[in-house]
Amino acid sequence: MPAAALKPKPLPTQSTAKRSVQLDLPYVPVEKRPLPPGRPRDWYVTHNRRLKAMRLAIALLDSGVYVPNQARNETIRSTAELIGVHPPSDTTCHMVRALMRYAR
Questions:
Q1: Are the C-beta atoms of residues 54 and 99 closer than 8 Å to each other?
Q2: What pTM was estimated for this model as a whole?
Q3: What is the pLDDT of residues 16-47, one digit of tens each?
Q4: Using CA atoms, how far apart are residues 77 and 95, in angstroms rounded to an integer?
């Protein structure tokens, strides 16, 4: 018997399913751990900004915004309100668009 016949059939994904797979609202964030001590303040600010930008980019992708041109500041800020994050600054909005651009 060929080895290919023994492999189980993979589960359908979003692209192969007969009907679309519904996405849930963003999941509960993982338990927070303390950041490492002794770094300069700028490091903490940048680190937290990157985390926030990643959360927002993931939420935008989940909501159907796939292109950075669609992610205007108002869209990003309304998504932040939806997922319970403080409204992002212009710099963070720019970072969200950059993450969406380079993820392709």
A1: yes
A2: 0.67
A3: 545 554 555 555 666 878 888 999 999 999 99
A4: 13
Burial tier of 96 (Cβ tally within 10 Å: 0-12, 13-18, 19+): buried
Provide the pLDDT for residue 6: 67
Helix (H, G, I), strand (E, B), or coil: what is residue 57? Answer: helix
Looking at residue 68, the DSSP 8-state letter turns out to be G
| Residue 26 region by backbone torsions, left for phi larger than 0, else alpha for psi between -120 and 50, else beta | beta
Q: Which of 57, 48, 49, 46 is nearest to 83 (CA)?
A: 57
Which burial class, exposed, middle or buried, applies to 49 when counting CB atoms under 10 A from its CB (0-12, 13-18, 19+)?
middle
**Residue range 61-80: mean pLDDT, rounded:** 91
Among residues of the chain, what percentage have pLDDT more than 90?
A: 48
Sign (positive or negative) of CA dihedral 3, 8, 9, 15: negative
H/E element, 53: helix 41-63
Torsion sign over Cα 62, 67, 70, 74? positive
